[in-house]
Design brief:
mainly alpha, two-stranded antiparallel sheet, 4 strands, binds iron/sulfur cluster
């Protein structure tokens, strides 16, 4: 699959996930604490390279990728380079192109050792769970493994290249920039 088609395919998975996720939020009555953003402030977030191809492409189109690469190089912590406490949307400077991990965390299910669906979430969201409502609504939660499998089907290598978030963002930018610069040179 060509790189642009992979980016479109990842975006399509994100569209499905957004619908799935908002349906689950309505059914479960769970939501993020207003003005929180704590999940993005975690030091050890890991992500795959594939999930950041759309963000990397957006940076390439807006010619901002070099400044983000520089910001990653100058970082002294591991907090995501896109984290922006002043951003109007979700503390993220590129909320629309955020990664899969960002979209799943808080409102997605994983299966525990007893083969039960449990929510991968934070303490704030957990505190809102109403046990009776939750028992029925958890069935509607997006499953982490199934969404990662959708990415795997797009590109098995990039979907399993799993690293600290800024390294994955860097790699995604390098792949996108190299690909489109080479294409531009070939056409010149
Ligand atoms: S990409 Fe955006 S939403 Fe995801 S961890 Fe970084 S700042 Fe948070």
């Amino acid at each position: 699959m060509y790189l642009l088609n992979k980016i479109k395919a990842v975006n399509k998975v994100y569209e499905q996930l957004e619908k799935h996720n908002s349906n689950f939020r309505i059914k479960s009555c769970l939501f993020c604490k207003p003005d929180c953003g704590e999940c993005c402030l975690t030091n050890h977030i890991e992500a795959t390279v594939l999930e950041f191809l759309p963000a990397a492409y957006n940076l390439y189109l807006s010619c901002e990728y070099e400044s983000i690469l520089e910001a990653i190089d100058n970082k002294i912590d591991e907090i995501c380079v896109f984290y922006n406490p002043f951003s109007r949307e979700g503390f993220c400077s590129d909320y629309n192109n955020r990664g899969m991990v960002c979209r799943l965390f808080g409102f997605a299910a994983k299966t525990n050792k007893k083969n039960e669906k449990v929510l991968a979430t934070c303490k704030h969201i957990k505190s809102l769970i109403q046990p009776e409502k939750f028992k029925s609504s958890i069935l509607y939660a997006p499953e982490m493994s199934s969404y990662y499998m959708k990415l795997y089907c797009i590109d098995p290598w990039l979907a399993t290249l799993h690293m600290p978030i800024n390294k994955s963002i860097r790699k995604a930018i390098e792949i996108v920039a190299m690909h489109f610069q080479y294409k531009k040179k070939k056409m010149a």
